[in-house]
Automatic annotation (TrEMBL):
GO biological process, one term: synaptic vesicle lumen acidification
Source species: Vicugna pacos
Annotated GO MF terms: ATP hydrolysis activity; proton-transporting ATPase activity, rotational mechanism
Protein name per UniProt: V-type proton ATPase subunit G
Protein family per UniProt: Belongs to the V-ATPase G subunit family.
Cited Pfam families: V-ATPase_G (PF03179)
Taxonomic classification: Eukaryota, Metazoa, Chordata, Craniata, Vertebrata
Complex formation: V-ATPase is a heteromultimeric enzyme made up of two complexes: the ATP-hydrolytic V1 complex and the proton translocation V0 complex. The V1 complex consists of three catalytic AB heterodimers that form a heterohexamer, three peripheral stalks each consisting of EG heterodimers, one central rotor including subunits D and F, and the regulatory subunits C and H. The proton translocation complex V0 consists of the proton transport subunit a, a ring of proteolipid subunits c9c'', rotary subunit d, subunits e and f, and the accessory subunits ATP6AP1/Ac45 and ATP6AP2/PRR.
Function of the protein: Subunit of the V1 complex of vacuolar(H+)-ATPase (V-ATPase), a multisubunit enzyme composed of a peripheral complex (V1) that hydrolyzes ATP and a membrane integral complex (V0) that translocates protons. V-ATPase is responsible for acidifying and maintaining the pH of intracellular compartments and in some cell types, is targeted to the plasma membrane, where it is responsible for acidifying the extracellular environment.
Compartment list: Endomembrane system
Region (Disordered): 51-71
């Protein structure tokens, strides 16, 4: 009986050691999975930063030429507006005099298409 009891004790100890090894293996596996997940996340983030930088460079290259074009268009528009305003200031008095002359100097006439009923 003592040898059976001793055999059972050995089996229980072996089972306990096996359970500890399995638990340790699970912990190592969980650590490896967590580490792999973190590394993958860092790679994804690095790839995203690289692609974002590449996009910004391309956008800057494209927008740089458009930015200059935009400034040129803005400058041309400003010059045109200034020209129109100066033209308006120069011709204001002449146009007002012309309009007042047309409105105030009415010459009554019979329209050429008017027919007198006979």
């Amino acid at each position: 009986m003592a040898s059976q009891s001793q055999g059972i004790q050995q089996l229980l100890q072996a089972e306990k050691r096996a359970a500890e090894k399995v638990a340790d293996a699970r912990k190592r596996k969980a650590r490896r999975l967590k580490q792999a997940k973190e590394e993958a996340q860092m790679e994804v983030e690095q790839y995203r930063r690289e692609r974002e930088q590449e996009f910004q460079n391309k956008q800057q290259a494209a927008m740089g030429s458009q930015g200059n074009l935009s400034a040129e268009v803005e400058q041309a528009t400003w010059r045109q507006v200034q020209g129109m305003q100066s033209s308006q200031q120069r011709n204001r008095e002449r146009v007002l005099a012309q309009l007042l002359g047309m409105v105030c100097n009415v010459r009554p006439q019979v329209h050429p298409n008017y027919r007198i009923a006979a």
